[in-house]
Each structure stands twice: as C-alpha cells, then as structure tokens.
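Late entry, nicotinamide-adenine-dinucleotide complex.
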Amino acid sequence: MPKPKVLVTGGAGYIGSHTCKQLAAQGYSPIVYDNLVYGNKDAVKWGPLIIGELEDQARITRVFEEHKIESVLHFAAFAYVGESVENPEKYYRNNVGGTLSLLGSMRAAAVSKIIFSSTCATYGIPDVVPISVEHPQRPINPYGRSKLVIEQVLKDYADAYGMRACVLRYFNAAGADPELELGEMHEPETHLIPNVISAMRGELTHLDVYGSDYDTRDGSCIRDYIHVTDLANAHVLALENIENLANFTVYNLGNGQGHSVFEIIHMVEQISGKKVPYKLAGRRAGDPPVLVADAQEACDKLAWEPEYHQLKDIVGTALAWAARADRSC
Ligand SMILES: NC(=O)c1ccc[n+]([C@@H]2O[C@H](COP(=O)([O-])OP(=O)(O)OC[C@H]3O[C@@H](n4cnc5c(N)ncnc54)[C@H](O)[C@@H]3O)[C@@H](O)[C@H]2O)c1
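Prediction complete; structure with ligand written out below:
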C-alpha cells in the first residue's frame, strides 16, 4: 500500500531537501511547498515543487485537497539571527504569521499532523548543559522568540482543535548528504563549518573567530553539531510515530557532544591538509559559551540513533560537498 503524501514547507532549503530524500527512501511522496526566497529548486528531486507563499492560505488548502495530504513537515522560515534583531517584523510576519496561515489551511482541509522545525535558540543562555527539553525557554533574539511563539500556538491548537504537533528543536545542523546529491547552500552563509571551509578554500580572506576568552576548554564557543541526514531521519521517525505520541510533543535533536570553534578549524585542516586563515574577533552579543543538547528523549521515544555523530564525518561530508566542481544539486 502506498504511504501517505506529505507536504514539506521549505523543502527546497537545506534541512527540508535532505529530509525529502529520506522520506522518499522510506516510500513517502514528499510534496514541496517553497517560495524559493532562500531555497534552491534543483534541491527538489523526490517529488513535485509547488512555488508559493505560506501566507497563501487558499492555495495551500487546495494543495492539501488535491494531493490528499495527511501530514505536514514545516521547515519554511527565516533563520538569520542578526537580521531578526534588525528587522523583527520580517521574522514575526514570516515565521509566526506564515505558520498561522498554514495552520488555518490545515484546519480547513482537516489535516491534523504537523512536525515543526524549532531551535535551541528558544532556550537563550542556558543555566545548565546539556540542555533538556524541560529547560526554561528564554530566547534572546526575535528569531528565537518567533519559534517559541509558534511552539505555544501549536500547543494551544493541539489542546483546542485536536491537532497532533511534534516539535523538534535542532541544535546546529551541519554536514551534507553522504551521497553528495545535496549539501548546504545558504546565501548569505552564517554557519560555522561552511565558512571555515570557505576560508580554507580561499573563498573568504579569513574566518572571524568570535570570542576566544570564554570559560571553555580553549576559549572559543562550543556547539552541538548534528548531521543533516540524522536530522532528516528523526523527521521520518517522528512522522512514523506521531499517531502514538501525545498530541503535543517536543524533542531536542543533537549529538550531546560539544565542539569548539578551534576544534572545527583543526578538523577541517586535518582532513583537507590545508591551513584555515582566521582572525580573533570580539565576542558577539548574546552568544552563549556552550550549547549542547540532551537528546535522550528523542533516542528513547523515537528510536532515533544519530549515525554520523563523529565530527570527522560531519566535517568530512561538508568538505566533500564543497569540493564538488559543480555545486548545484
Ligand atoms: N540550519 C540550522 O542549523 C537550524 C537550526 C535550528 C532550526 N532550524 C530551522 O530549520 C528550518 C530549516 O532551516 P534551513 O537551514 O534548512 O533553512 P533554509 O533557509 O535553507 O530553508 C528554509 C526554506 O523555507 C523557504 N521559505 C521561507 N519562508 C517561506 C514562506 N513564507 N513561504 C514559502 N517558503 C518559505 C525558503 O525559501 C527556504 O527554501 C528553519 O525553520 C530553521 O529555523 C535550522
């Protein structure tokens, strides 16, 4: 029997496109809905691409009905922290407003299941690490606040309308599809690993290391890097299990291990055999020294087991993707 069709908002983006590949591998038919503001149409390879805005409620309702969609994986959002500080309206309109519109379409078409891309940015500066899902959420920028508001909306919709919402709070997505059919292509790129690689390749003059005097093992910030294919697999598991979970559930997705900025630089140098030019820059306001996930609940309840948990695999796939002569998908 064919598996149900799923709508993947933001499926032309980095994590959404990798998730479509894993969905298709498990027999799902992913239908991508993306406005291509940041996504890449060549990354949509495992089903149709519908180019449209989240805000177009009537259109999405029609898409649900025409394709007989039963579940939504909701990746579409703006995700640049600095931009969100300068232009919060853009973030609340797109992330919160767009999600409200999507939820309206879901209700109109009686689609009740949604898996939502949230973030460790909803925690703000943590009191303790590793960070569990019970940790208080005190986001320190409009991007993080927009995601927290959506989480709260989903909880209210689950209580009031019987929706089933599974919230996945990712830590730092990284790496590329090991078969190199996909990879990270953000423009502008703000993520550390692709920027370290660009500095190594001479595409940037140097890498700025923001803060080298933190109370960490080498003074630089520590983050939990989770391979994008492992994130993608967690979505498939959430989809498979959503009927058996409570109406509203939250999981952290990370490896539970932290790596510093200097450790990333050294790993890129070790694998590539080339130096990474870098300069020490000041701390950035609001950068927590350490963000590491306690993702045990996702492992226990979803039977999720990150496969590419070693830093050399995460950095190695990112390097292999960057080395492709033709970086289009
Ligand atoms: N990349 C990370 O490390 C990370 C960490 C935590 C959470 N997240 C969240 O995961 C999701 C995916 O992140 P990503 O890195 O793949 O981002 P991305 O920018 O690569 O993908 C997002 C996609 O959404 C689309 N989009 C945005 N607004 C839209 C709208 N109004 N209508 C239709 N399409 C729209 C963009 O065109 C893009 O293709 C985002 O919600 C992000 O907040 C990402």
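The radius of gyration is 19 Å. Will revisit in the morning.
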